[in-house]
């Protein structure tokens, strides 16, 4: 017996119950198994360290995960699905599950990882008093940067925020360029590489963290991981939505922040990324034409069934005195909260853009350009959440 963790198994399927029991009992002698109807009572009866929920009907599963999380926000909550259903698994993670496995495909993965998961949980539990900000693994945030208008600053802002998050915290951060046709991020960091996220396509079925880290470029100053675009229209066409969803979900399991730079057109790749996102940052310049495009995007999203409420926030970019619309007026017309305001800083940015250098390279920069200061404020607000 390696652990004294109190483990609760919730399952309606006899086969899963006995499989999970065997795995759990080899680690702890405090294992209880119940069906869905008794789960909450059992959660209230004793403090559980680890709860493993095996999938039942979709709605019941999501609801149960939510309720368990509400009863015990600190427990480790694992979900075992019967099939790789993107929507279900996304909802399960949103409802508060820490990690999921698909049985029977991932039964052996689960068995082999379970000891580590339990150990990590116990280490985390024992070191609660440690003041350092530690990040809960396996539930990274997906932050997408979008705008219906080209040239609005998505690539520059996504890249600078990613770099700043990495420099100013201990979080694991990955930046993904989903401008699959033309790219863009490679220019911000002067990356010359033959590797791109398309190299992950052959391994999509078994995609894991080490595949991703092997293909990603590591930014030398911050150690930010970057998945470069294939920058090839023919390759871009072969990238399906299932691949995008799998890529994002795998990144979510291994990184604290997953930042996605999106193109301005709408296609299946973009829709998938938007659907998988926890937050969509819409980059808006304060002028009437950009506002009109935002309205069109709202209409299109509702037609495509992409829910923006509670997820989309506005990032105002190129704020200047001479703007056509002033920030105070904007607040009254926008239906979404403003996450950040970034000033227009043509002079400050120029040398960095010309040299292909990020606006930040060290943690304690002596002199920051205005743009980098605004990005720092935005990034610190994200870290606080
Ligand atoms: N706050 C700012 N101040 C000054 N210039 C800016 C600012 N934000 C963006 N720019 C300028 O706009 C240009 C385009 O930015 P960027 O490439 O990030 O936009 P994008 O939305 O990704 O465009 P694309 O449609 O090409 O993908 C930058 O090269 C930069 O010169
Ligand atoms: Mg771009």
From TrEMBL:
InterPro entries for the chain: AAA_dom, P-loop_NTPase, ParA/MinD_ATPase
Gene3D superfamilies: 3.40.50.2300, P-loop containing nucleotide triphosphate hydrolases
A Pfam family per the record: AAA_31
Domain spans labelled AAA: 141-300
PANTHER family referenced in this protein's UniProt entry, alphabetically: SEPTUM SITE-DETERMINING PROTEIN MIND HOMOLOG, CHLOROPLASTIC-RELATED (PTHR43384), SLR0110 PROTEIN (PTHR43384:SF13)
Protein name in UniProt: CpaE family protein
Species the sequence originates in: Paenisporosarcina macmurdoensis
UniProt lineage: Bacteria, Bacillati, Bacillota, Bacilli, Bacillales
